[in-house]
Amino acid sequence: MKSSLYIPLFLSVILSCSSSSPEGNNAVTPLPTNPVIPVKQLTDTEALDQVQKDAIKYFWDYADSNSKLARERYHTEDPNFESNIITTGGSGFGLMTIVVGVERGFLPRAEAVSRLTTALNFLEKADRFHGAWPHWMDNKAGKVIPFGTKDNGGDLVETSFVCQALITIREYFKNGSTTEKELAAKADELWKGVEWDWYTKGEEALYWHWSPNYGWEMNFKLEGYNECLITYIMAASSPTHPISAAAYHKAWARNGAIVNAGTQYGVPVVLNYNGATGSVGPMFWSHYSYLGLDPNNLKDKYADYGVLTQNHAKIMVQHSITNPKGWKDYSDKCWGLTASYTRNLDGTTGYTAHQPNNDTGVISPTAALSSFPFAPTEAMKFLHYLYDENKTKYVGIAGPYDAFSPQYNWVTPRYLAIDQGTIAPMIENYRSGLLWKLFMNAPETKQGLITLGFHSSKYGF
C-alpha cells in the first residue's frame, strides 16, 4: 500500500530535480504545498465492518463509566455536557449493539458479558414505576431525571425498547457459560417485571406515561402508526402482565383506520403515519420497533410489514432523488430524513423530526444506514458517500456524526444514543439476521404476535 501511495510522489521529486531545461538545472518543478494522498476506496464488506465498529464505540468507548449504559448524547466539543443523563431507550439499542459486537468479534466476549451484567444490575436497582423505567435517569443510582415537568415517571415506550433488548440478550446467552446463563436469567427477570396492563388505565389501549405525582395527566394514548408498534407486541407477549388483543386493534390500529390506500412518488404508503397524512414519517419509525421484530413475511390484517418498511425507505430515497426543494447533493447516495439534530435558520443547532413534509436540507446518517435491510443498494451508496468521499467531514470518533447539510456546508459534531444505536443492529440484521432470529424465535414473542393476529411464514406461525 505504501508503494502505491508514495512512490509516485518520490519519483516526482527525483525527476523534478534531475530534469534539464533551456533555463538550466536551477529550473525545477516545485513540490505541491499540500500533496493529496488518495483515499483508499473500501470494499462493501470493509465499509460495513468499519461503520459497525465505529457505531459500537458510542456504547463501548463512550458509555457511562458507572452504569455501562448509554449517555443520552455526546458533544465532541463539550464531552461533559449532560454527562450524568442515562437514556433508557438508547440504552436498549446499545445493549443490542453490544450483542452485535460480540457476534462479529469486534468486542471481547467476557468483558462484554461483564459490562452487560453491570448494566442489568443497574437497571434492576433503578427507579421503576409499575415496572416501567423513566425516559431519563441519573448515572449514579438510576433516579428519575424528568424528561418534562409531568414526564417524571414511567415511560412505557422507552421501556419496550429495553425489553426488546432484554429478550435478545436472554436468547443469545442462555446456553453459554455459568456467568452468561446468570446474565440471561437477569434479563428474563427484568422484562417480566413490567406491568404492561397497568398502562392501559383500565381501557383497551396503552398509554405512554404514568407519574407518581401527576398520574395520567399526560394522557398520551399509543395510536398508530409511529415507533410504538414494539410496545404493543411486548405488552401482548408478557407472560406476567399481558394486555388484550382488543387494545391493539381498537387503539393502535384505530379499528382499522390505520390503513392508508394512498401513495407517494407512486409508492404505496400502506399505513397512516401520524402527522404525515398521505406521506411517511421520519425513518426511525421503521427502525426502533424492528431491531428485533423481523418485518419480512410478517403480516396482520392491516399490513404486510416487509412491504411497509421497504416502501418507507423507497419513498425516502425517491424524495431525495426528486428533491422538491432543490437541496444541494440530494440524490440516491445522499439521502435519509429522520429525527436528529438539525440546523436552525440562524445557523445554530436544534432538533427536529426530519421527514418529507419537514425537509430542512439536513441529512441524518442513521436514516440511511439503519435502512440497510429495506434499501440495501441505496444504503450502500450512502455508506460509500460517507466513508469514501466525505469521511473527514462527516465521520468522527464514534462513527457518522448525527446530522449534516451540504446545502449549508454544515455538520454537527455530536451524537445521540437513539440515532447511533440503530446503526450496528440494523446493519447486522441485513448481514446475518442475527437479532431478528433471536427475538422472533423467543417463545413469548411468537405467542404475543399470534395473540395480536400476526402471521409469519418465515418463523412458522
Automatic annotation (TrEMBL):
InterPro entries: Glycoamylase-like_cons_dom, UCP028431. Pfam families: Glycoamylase. Residues 219-442 form the Glycoamylase-like domain. This is Beta-glucosidase.
